[in-house]
Amino acid sequence: MPVDKPAPVDHPVHPHIRARWSPVAFDVRPVEPEKLRSLFEAARWASSSFNEQPWRFVVGVKGQGDTFERILSTLGEANAAWAQHAPVLVISVAKLSFTRNGNSNRHAWHDVGQAAASLAIQATELGLRVHQMAGFNPAKARTELGIPDDYEPVTAIVIGYPGDGSLLPETTRARDDGARQRRPMAQIVFGGTWEQPPAWLA
Fold it and tell me: 53: pLDDT confidence band, cut at 50, 70 and 90?
């Protein structure tokens, strides 16, 4: 099982961006409180529309109360099978309206994603791994965690140290063993016309 799997980039990027990836094998080792504080400090300083900071995080640390188990109960069966071994589970949440005027904030999910990305990069700096997933039940998360109506559960997040995955089912292990892939840049970056790469990309 790979512990490190740097991205095969085509152009230079920061080493933490290359190193960041989303494994399914996590060690049972607890995450130190100071490292958790560092992760969410990184999330806190993400950029957002009108500085609204619409991100919220419900954090469950294994062995500290029942929040971990309540978050685990919202995960899909396949995700719960491996996520249960990690020490920290999180639900990210978006505030759907602007605090300043009550208007709908159509950028809230985007901004929550920016905060989660900052968290993931900081985790890489600290030797941790983060796996974000859509495979959870938002309605159950709302009920289990008391999330108000003006807030929307966005993703479930697993945080921990990388594990060897030897106890994971073969189909799950294959997710970690597979090659990392991305679409070519020409398929995602366009010039003045849709799907036409810019001249500088040549």
Answer: very high
Residue 187 lies in a domain: no
- Residue at 122 is within a domain: yes
Of the candidates 82, 77, 56, 57, the residue with the CA atom closest to the CA atom of residue 67 = 57
b/e 14-24 (16+ beta carbons within 10 angstroms → b): eeeebbbbbbb
- Which among 3, 8, 15, 23 is positioned nearest to 158, based on CA atoms? 23
- Say if 198 falls within a structural domain: no
189 domain residue, yes or no? no
Burial class (CB in 10 A: 0-12, 13-18, 19+), 42: buried
CATH of the domain at 57: 3.40.109.10
Owning domain of residue 28: 15-162
pTM above 0.85, yes or no: yes
Instruction: Give the residue carrying structure tokens 């109506």.
Output: 149
Q: What is the pLDDT of residue 165?
A: 76
Ramachandran bin of 189, using left for φ above 0, alpha for ψ from -120 to 50, beta for the remaining angles: beta
Report the domain count for the chain. Answer: 1
Q: Which residue has the tokens 């400090």?
A: 41
